[in-house]
Design a protein that fits this description.
The structure holds 3 protein chains of 3 kinds.
Chain A: H1 6-31, H2 62-95, H3 99-114, H4 117-127, H5 131-159, H6 162-169, H7 174-210, H8 222-233, H9 239-265
Helix pairs in contact in A: 1-2, 1-9, 2-3, 2-5, 2-7, 2-9, 3-5, 4-5, 5-7, 7-8, 7-9, 8-9
Chain B: E1 2-12, E2 15-25, E3 30-34, H1 41-48, E4 56-61, E5 64-65, E6 74-77, H2 91-95, H3 103-108, H4 125-135, E7 143-147, H5 155-172, E8 175-179, H6 183-189, E9 192-197, E10 200-203
Parallel strand pairs in B: 3-8, 3-9, 6-7, 7-8
Antiparallel strand pairs in B: 1-2, 1-4, 4-5, 9-10
Helix pairs in contact in B: 4-5
Chain C: E1 2-14, E2 20-33, E3 38-43, H1 49-57, E4 65-72, E5 75-76, H2 79-85, E6 90-93, H3 106-116, H4 121-134, H5 139-142, H6 151-164, E7 169-173, H7 181-196, E8 200-205, H8 208-211, E9 217-222, E10 225-231, H9 245-252, H10 264-277
Parallel strand pairs in C: 3-8, 3-9, 6-7, 7-8
Antiparallel strand pairs in C: 1-2, 1-4, 4-5, 9-10
The chains are: A mainly alpha, B alpha/beta, C alpha/beta.
Keywords (chain C): ATP-binding, Cell membrane, Ion transport, Membrane, Nucleotide-binding, Translocase, Transport
InterPro entries (chain C): AAA+_ATPase, ABC_Ni/Peptide_Import, ABC_transporter-like_ATP-bd, P-loop_NTPase
EC number (chain C): 7.2.2.11
Chain lengths: 266, 207, 278
């Protein structure tokens, strides 16, 4: 393609990602409880025509568990990214109200950014007692500062834009200026920000679970699968780690690409 | 009558931009303001429109202070119309932000009906500037501060814009402060002219 | 020196989210710029003046359809040759002052421009010093960063950079915007001087009045088309020696002339007719 078409690419990327997500959601109905069904005659079977991606130590089908794990990661990622964006947006809006609040918000942002993600994640998840909810909250709390910083800078600049000042001089209320001029301008930032957060959230959910601070081992999360796979790696049971890992990578990359394309197109 | 008395303004202590400047603008009067860049022309304009507050002195409209909220009777028109409009709004929505101009008024300013459904970036600077000027002429507006509004325009567009504004101002007895460093333009437009230098106003006439 | 032959440019415009249309921004321009001349290209905003500059420098945005030919000193000027000559033989003084590197002091910035033209670093520094003194940038300005310069100083720094790069063709895009009369005169005088040294200067501006005192020839553009190319001396009196109605109107509308257009309605029709014929 010699003539670059950012919008076409963004649309293609959006289509592919939507298809993946729809397929993932649909597969959960078709799966039923096959992710939990044990087959004691086929434990640790390598990939074959009968067992597409092989089975684990309890004879459970790996493809079913991978799909179920991806779906779980997807929801966790979605909710965490959404929550993060909401926190970022409200704090950025708060920061524009007064210089003092602005200083406070900036301080919180800088403090959070100076602490390594994973340590904070583990502490929060641990304090909340683990489980899906704790992971979502922990990921949301640790991921908003970057976006909040961008949104705050954007809002501060925008409030001094001539058209915003003129709107006030034309007798428009604060509320009108906020929802008619300021917020719509932030929507693309929020959208791209949320999409960029999403793969991060999934990876951190997996990392947290892998380290044992996240979802419970009974749930077929990708992180749980990878943690289990570690135990069997030395026995040469490579498929246990490779397939869930690849699936996670694919999902993360497709969202990363989508957000990059959208950023260019918007 | 818009009256500024003994206005002083400084950005930082010790660096004084305006020193006790007084200026009056009555209904239907056109006043020109020239000066080098950085002399404080724009700041004086913004002070009069209430965008900036002076450190000393005060501005009154018919003896009363400017209203703190609601439609301002003194409207400011900036140099670049591209920054004065929300890029996400269509031109029709921009034009009608404060009031709904009639078709005849649009025609007087040369605003084509076809523009209204377009976005601002699809209009040229001159076309957009006309939209901005008409937008500011809401009923209740009595004074205009035109800060270099035709500097970026070619001579024909500039002429058309001033002709339209002159007509409307005459009809409604608007007072207009024209800020420009183009002295030839000020001579054409304004019977009364001032030059701002070293924070002081001096009156001037054609050489 | 530089010849443009039947140059057309189309750029994509999104009519809606999906519909991409090609609008014609430059329409079959044929121009010749000769050495030792200041050639002003004048037009309203949106006439395609800046795009013409970018086309000559090879700096157009990527999805663009460019037709026609450029010749520099007799041989075709294509993209690779533009890239090779840019900053050496061809220099652009851009409209945006953001073109200066914000992290580099003026003196080094100008020295870099000299180095880019192939001079060894010592003589480049020397040339930079001479140019800075020549454009009356004092010691404080020479040690300043871009944000500490006033608009007029920044333009003179950009002009000094074009000067030391020993470019044979200098394109100045709206060099007088945002400057007060005093500074504007200095910047324009600097351009005139470049031409007097035998270089080709293309002055792109919307400001006919200020271009005239330094220009030898003037090309009037409208909606991407060339309306007229005339000697600067043709713009005098009531503009009767101009051939196109549009250029006459442009001349008469100036505040120092009649500040009116004779028979406005008729003139507009004539301008429209003229555009349709061209």
């Amino acid at each position: 393609m010699s003539e670059a078409q950012p919008r076409l690419r963004a649309a293609l990327s959006l289509g592919v990602t939507t298809l993946l997500v729809l397929g993932l959601v649909a597969s959960q109905w078709l799966l039923g409880d096959s992710a939990q069904q044990m087959q004691f005659d086929a434990r640790l079977a390598p990939p074959s025509l009968n067992h597409w991606l092989g089975t684990d130590a309890l004879g459970r089908e790996l493809w079913a568990r991978t799909l179920a794990g991806l779906a779980l990661s997807f929801w966790v990622g979605c909710l965490a990214a959404l929550l993060s964006t909401l926190i970022a947006l409200s704090l950025a809006a708060l920061a524009t109200l007064s210089p003092r609040l602005d200083a406070l918000v900036s301080l919180v942002i800088d403090t959070l950014l100076s602490v390594p993600h994973l340590i904070l994640l583990m502490l929060i998840a641990f304090a909340l007692g683990g489980g899906t909810q704790a992971v979502i909250i922990a990921v949301a709390i640790t991921h908003w500062p970057r976006l909040a910083r961008v949104l705050r800078a954007e809002l501060l600049q925008l409030r001094q834009a001539p058209y915003v000042l003129i709107s006030q001089a034309l007798g428009k209320s604060r509320w009108f200026v906020l929802h008619a001029h300021l917020l719509p301008h932030l929507i693309p930032h929020c959208l791209v920000g949320a999409l960029l957060l999403f793969p991060h959230a999934i990876l951190h959910e997996a990392a947290l679970t892998f380290l044992g601070f996240g979802l419970s081992p009974s749930q077929p999360a990708i992180g749980v699968l990878l943690a289990e796979a570690m135990r069997y790696l030395s026995g040469g049971y490579w498929w246990l780690g490779v397939f869930p890992g690849l699936a996670l990578l694919m999902m993360v990359l497709s969202f990363e690409r989508l957000s990059n394309h959208l950023r260019r197109a918007l | 009558m818009l009256e500024a008395r003994e206005l002083s303004f400084q950005f930082s202590p010790g660096v004084s931009l305006l020193q006790a400047v007084s200026l009056t603008l009555s209904a239907g009067q056109w006043v020109g303001l020239s000066g080098d860049s950085g002399a404080g022309k724009s700041t004086l304009g913004k002070l009069l429109a209430g965008y900036v507050t002076p450190q000393a002195g005060h501005i009154s409209l018919d003896g009363e202070a400017l209203p703190s909220r609601g439609l301002q009777p003194v409207q400011w028109l900036p140099q670049s119309p591209e920054l004065a409009v929300n890029p996400r709004w269509r031109v029709g929505k921009i034009l009608r932000e404060a009031w709904a101009p009639s078709n005849a008024q649009c025609q007087a300013f040369g605003i084509q009906p076809g523009w209204l459904s377009r976005f601002p970036h699809a209009l040229s600077g001159g076309e957009l500037q006309r939209v901005c000027v008409l937008r500011a002429l809401a009923p209740g507006v009595r004074f205009l501060i035109a800060d270099e509004i035709s500097t970026m325009l070619d001579p024909i567009t500039q002429l058309e814009l001033w002709q339209a504004l002159k007509q409307e101002a005459e009809k409604r007895q608007l007072g207009v402060l024209v800020i420009s460093h183009d002295t030839a333009l000020l001579e054409r437009l304004c019977p009364q002219r001032y030059h701002l230098h070293d924070g002081q106003l001096t009156s001037w006439s054609a050489e | 020196m530089l010849t443009i032959d039947q140059l057309s440019l189309q750029l994509p415009v999104y009519a809606s989210w999906w519909k991409r249309e090609w609008t014609t921004c430059l329409d079959k321009l044929s121009l010749h710029f000769s050495a030792g001349e200041v050639h002003a290209v004048v037009g309203a905003s949106g006439a395609g003046k800046s795009l013409l500059a970018y086309a000559m420098m090879g700096l157009l945005p990527t999805p663009a359809r460019l037709n026609g030919q450029l010749y520099y000193q007799g041989s075709p000027l294509d993209r690779p040759r533009q890239r090779q000559l840019r900053g050496r033989e061809l220099a652009l003084i851009p409209q945006s002052l953001n073109a200066l590197d914000p992290l580099v002091r003026t003196q080094r910035q100008v020295a870099w421009a000299a180095q880019r033209s192939g001079q060894p670093s010592k003589s480049a520094r020397h040339a930079a010093q001479l140019a800075l003194d020549h454009y009356q940038l004092d010691a404080r300005a020479q040690q300043a960063y871009a944000h500490e310069l006033s608009g007029g100083m920044a333009r003179r720094v950009l002009t000094a950079m074009a000067h030391v790069s020993q470019a044979q063709l200098v394109i100045a895009d709206e060099p007088s915007v945002g400057l007060d009369p005093h500074q504007r005169q200095r910047v324009l005088a600097a351009l005139r001087e470049l031409a007097d040294q035998g270089k080709t200067v293309i002055l792109i501006t919307h400001d006919l009045r200020h271009a005239l005192p330094i220009a030898d020839r003037v090309t009037i553009m409208r909606h991407g088309k060339q309306v007229e190319t005339a000697a600067a001396s043709a713009f005098q009196g009531n503009g009767d020696s101009l051939t196109a109605v549009y250029s006459q109107a442009l001349w008469q509308a100036l505040p120092d002339n009649s500040f009116s257009i004779r028979g406005t309605r008729k003139a507009q029709q004539d301008i429209q007719k003229e555009a349709n014929v061209a």
